[in-house]
Protein: YrhK domain-containing protein
Organism: Rosistilla oblonga
Amino acid sequence: MTSIQINDGGDAISPADDSVCVAAAGAWPFVSRRVYKLAGEVESIWTSRQHRKSLGPRRAASSLATWVFNPQSLNWWIGCIFAIGSSLFAAGSLLTLVPQLAKASGLEANINAIFFAGSIPFTTAAWLQLFQAANAGRSPNQSRKLFGWRPHDVGWLSCALQFAGTILFNINTFDGMIPGLNWFQSGLAVWTPNILGSLLFFASGYLAWIETCHAHWSFQPREIAWWIVAINLLGCISFLLSAFWGISLPTTPEDWPTISVAFTLAGAICFLIGALLMLPEAEQSTSEPATVVAITA
């Protein structure tokens, strides 16, 4: 008989002083999963995502009520705030693609402001994730860090790149509200931060993917975390394609702006779905030790 203990995100190095790491996995050069041998024949499994988000074992029964309202969980707040930002980006994209809808709602002159408004929740949620990752495994006598510095931690690095990307989206969407920009000014003030922010988002999404998969590719359809990072990665790819087709040049084809906005809408929908999936995952948030489950060897 062997016991497997799922680490709830305690110590970042090992779950116990007398433990020995017997296996490690992750996409090079990162380690996102470790197996520790404890006293007797007990093994403790540590994963990077569970550690940085303080997630315990998946519960056998879940409640829709806690998905909808779980304010004691930081993960729930992150999911809700990301959902707000994604919804605003989707709304702005839809109003751009359907001018009749924008005219009927009286929002024709405010579409760029809607995109800027959506970028604020993105930045807020991204910082909360970075703050969470920077303080993962913090002992009670350690002070909290606003940003931290853990470049060898795949989860922290993903959050840091995402936060930097959202700052660039703040600049991009704010500059988009400036009237009368010529093609060069638009390319410098709007497109440049857009493409750089999208590249950072893509890098962040891929790091979150390998953090969860422990490899460059994995198929785990029974794991909600896998669906979250997979759908978010699709959103990152859509935003990157949107930025590519959003370039401002005198020779830019007339249909490119429409293609760009369509990819923005697709990305926003992906991010909205990913954010909503974070709500049931947030139900696993815990500060208590995980349960040891006995299984047959």
Summary: The chain has nine helices and five strands. The chain has two domains: 2-61+286-295, 64-282. Confidence is low (pLDDT under 50) at residues 1-14, 288-297. The beta strands are 2-6, 20-25, 33-37, 42-47, 292-295.
